Structure formats: C-alpha cells, structure tokens
Amino acid sequence: MNRKTLVLPAVLGLLAPVLAACGATDGASSDGDAIVVGTTDRFTASKEAPAPIDPAYAYDVGTWNILRQTVQTLLVQPSGDGEPEPEAASRCGFTDTGSERYVCTLRDGLKFADGSPITAEDVKFSIDRARSIKADSGVFALLSTIDLVETKGDKQVIFHLNSPDATLPYKLSTPVAGIVNPADYDKDKLRDGFKVDGSGPYTLDAEVENNELVKAVFTKNPHYRGHLDPKNDQIELRSFADPDAMGSALESGDIDLMTRTMTPAQIDKYAKSEDENIDLIESSGLEIRYLAFNTDASPVKSTAVRRAIAQLVDRGALVSKVYGSQSEPLFSIVPAGITGHSNSFFNEYGDPSVSKATETLKQAGITTPVKLTLHYTTDHYGAATKTEFEVLKKQLDASGLFDVTIKGAPWSTFRPAEQKGEYAVYGMGWFPDFPDADNYLAPFLDKDNFLNSPYDNSEIRSKLIPESRREADRLTASESLTGIQDIVADDVPILPLWQGNQYVAARDDVTGAEYALNSASTLQLWQLGRGIGG
C-alpha cells in the first residue's frame, strides 16, 4: 500500500478527507484500549501564565486542542469545508439582515461532566467571563463585536452586536466561547493549573510534573450531548521533548499517532518508508509563519528598514532549504486557499533585490549595516525553526545592509517577552481560529491584537475590518480584505514567509487518522478508533 495518504483539498483549499486508513473496521474502540497520541506541544503553568488552559486565557493551537476535547461550544467547525454546525446548540442564526442579532437555542438534555444541567445562563456566564477578564493573551478580542449577551428562558441565548459581524458563528465555535461550569470557575479570575470542567465529549485527567502537563488522559464523557460522535472511550495525549523522541515512540509502538510537530526529515522518512505499520497522511494546511515587528522599537521603527527586509527575504530559497515540498512561499498574511487572499507582497516588491533595498535605505538616510536581532521560539513551532532563522540571517547579512544576530528562547519565556514589547523583530506562526480571511487580519491589526503590537492603522481598524465583516458572502468582502493586505505590504508591520501543509503519522491499526486534523489544525481526537493493521 502507499506509505503516504493524501487528504485532497476541497473548495477554497479546506480539507475534505477522502481516504480511509489501511485495514479499517468501523473504527469503534470496543475493548477500551486507549489510543495514544504524541505531540511536541509544551503545556507549562508559570508565573507569567498560571492558567494555560482556562478558556478565557488559552490562545495557541496546543492548549486549544485540549479544550476542544473537553469544553463544548455552541457551534463546531466541520471536518471539511462548510459553515460551523450546531454543537451545544440545536440551532443558531442571525435574526436580522444586518448581522447584528444572533440567536442560539440549546439542545435538550445538556449537562456538565458532573451531571449538573446546563442553562442559557451558563452560556452567558462563560462568554461574559472571557470578555470581562480580558486576559493578556488577547483571546477575548475574538468576542469584541459582542455588545450584550441576553438569555430568554433556560434555552435561548441572544447576542446583540456593536457592529455587523458575519464571522460571529465561527468565533462562537472557538474555545474562548466554551461553556464552563460556574461552580468551578470564578467570574472575575482565571483558573490556575490544568483542570477543566466543561461538557465536551471527554473529561480530562492531567498528569503534571514541575508545573508542566506531560500527559493528558481524555475519557469519554457519559453526560455528553452534542453533534460529535466519539469513536473511542479513551485517548492519551503525551507531550515529548522533541520530534525524534516522539518518532521513536511511534516506531516502537509506545504511541499510536504523532501530530505536530514533525521535522522535515521525519516527513520525508515516513513518506518513503517501507514500514507497513506506519502511514503518513498529508493534507493542505492553513498554517502560516511570519516575522512580526515592534514598530515602536529601534531600528525597525523606521518603515524603510522594514521595507528593506521585505525586499531582501527570498521565500523560495528559504522554503527550499528548510522545508522542501512541505511548504510554499507566502506573499500575504492571508494564505492561498482562503477567500480574499492577495499576493500583496509580491505585487509590492517583486523578486528579492539588493539594489532596491539599498535604495530604500539610502533615501531614508539609514546608515548600513543595520544591526538587528531576530528572535525565535525554540520549542513551539518545530525543530526546523532554528535552521529557518539561520537561513534568514544569511540572506540579510549577504546583502551587506544588515548585521544580524539570532536568539532563541522557549515558548514559556518567548511569548511573554514578545507581548511586553521586548523584541524588535521576532518569528511567529499562526494556526487559524477559523478558516476566514478576517482571522488572519484582525488578530494582528485590530485593537487588543494577539501580538500586542503598537501598529495602528486607522483605515484598517475603523473602515476596512468593519466593512469586511458586514458581508455574509465572503467573496463580496474581497475588496476590503485586499485593501487591508495592500496596506500591510506597504507598512510591513508583519512579513509573511511561508504556508505549510499538515502531516500526521499513525500506526495502521488506527482508524480515522485522516480526520485527525481539520483545516484549522483542530485536533479531532473523537475521530480516532481501532481497526485491524495490515
């Protein structure tokens, strides 16, 4: 059989899994044998971030993948293309033509994992809590268009918006809108540690060492009522220090499936491997990587310096040397495959050019070489990140216009330092909260943005973002979305680098591995089951 299974993209580049794993049965886990999943995501409770998996705080793909198994939302994103589907709700919809009043009706029989009933007031409590705490992770900004949450009886929740927002259904499918038990969560305070009390398909038992979650055991929640259909009774998610250790565990059978982050070498290995026990599943991805700039910090406070960097970076060479065919160059912060994508950076700068970058700096009176430090995280986006930054350093240094130093730090210290503005230039990745262009623009450019960036463009914030959100037909919003991307290419508060595919490697007695990730990199553990290897 083929060692690589392709999950072909559907409309707009979203995932539509089409192939089943080798030797699959119906996927049910009849003997209760836990399926073990490996990840290199690290989950640390620290002084700076004591509540890593509180829905009102969590805002990275790893912690969200824990919450999506345990905390129920009104709607859920489908495995493939399409609008969010009712989950804790039986139905939801806008009740006006202006996308400013949205109503959800809860399913019958909803209960928290402890057996207590869920009412509309619990939904209101959970969403109002995230909005009022305003955690420094910036996740609350996803709910910024909500003006008031109202309830009607025990089952109806009404959202009154402060401005039209056709993307609200997507936002209500993210963990920040997760329903938590008021008996276990304070209204005005984050919940420290690694406990979660919700109504999702699983409960969580966290194994913690030195304030770090090393194993998460997800057990099927008998009180769960929702849209999802778990194919297993128990899943273990184990955190590994590096991809090599994770790969060894897969090959020895200690784990059944490995997710992010695999190295380029591992992906090549499993794609070519003759090992009949391991399958590699590849799918189109919406993950992006980019450089972010603190536009108040020297030397990148100068737009000319940022534009010169944009003129010099050779994305094609970067991708070829570090990631090969596993990624492709990206010329906008909105990736290809998303409605509204525009190659704004290529349109602005064309091919890399030292002479053009030299002229840009000369006209601005910038003395060269410009000393610059590029910061990156050592343990959050994969082992190839260091190599990527070594290539960026060589490209900029080779121009003679820059003198670059690179510095790495673990995510637990990197992220707080970035938020405090301690880095002038730093590398980040983005896994979408939901597959819409708004989610590649507003989180970086709007008020209370994810990066805590000082960059503020009034046309983007006051006109173009609100304008784009009025359009339920996202094709109609393309003009506003393209306008935002063109301004970003001109001002360069962010420099897009590449867009990556998604990969999962699984032992061939695991069914549903081709559904393990959706287009937004959501880990769908409920899809995994046991079959017959072969």
Brief digest:
The protein is α+β, with helices and mostly antiparallel strands and 534 residues long. It has 14 helices and 21 strands. The strands form 4 sheets. Strands 1, 2, 3, 10, 11, 12, 13, 14, 15, 16, 17, 18 and 19 form a 13-stranded mixed β-sheet that branches. The protein has a 4-stranded antiparallel β-sheet with strand order 6-7-9-8, with helices on one face.
Overview of the molecule:
There is one protein chain. With 534 residues, the protein is an alpha+beta fold. The chain is 25% helix and 23% strand. It has helices at residues 61-70, 120-133, 168-171, 243-252, 264-272, 303-312, 315-322, 344-349, 354-363, 385-398, 411-419, 442-445, 458-469, 478-491; strands at 4-7, 35-39, 43-44, 75-76, 85-86, 89-94, 101-106, 146-152, 156-161, 202-209, 212-220, 234-239, 257-258, 278-293, 327-329, 370-377, 402-409, 425-430, 494-507, 510-511, 529-530. The strands form four sheets. Strands 1, 2, 3, 10, 11, 12, 13, 14, 15, 16, 17, 18 and 19 form a 13-stranded mixed beta sheet that branches. Strand 4 (75-76) and strand 5 (85-86) form a beta hairpin. Helix 13 runs antiparallel to helix 14. The chain is globular. The protein starts with a strand and ends with a strand.
Largest sheet: 13 strands, mixed
Radius of gyration: 23 Å
How many angstroms does the end-to-end distance come to?
A: 9 Å
Structural class: alpha+beta
How many distinct helices? 14
Domain Solute-binding protein family: 83-450
Protein name: ABC transporter substrate-binding protein
Family: Belongs to the bacterial solute-binding protein 5 family.
Signal peptide: 1-20
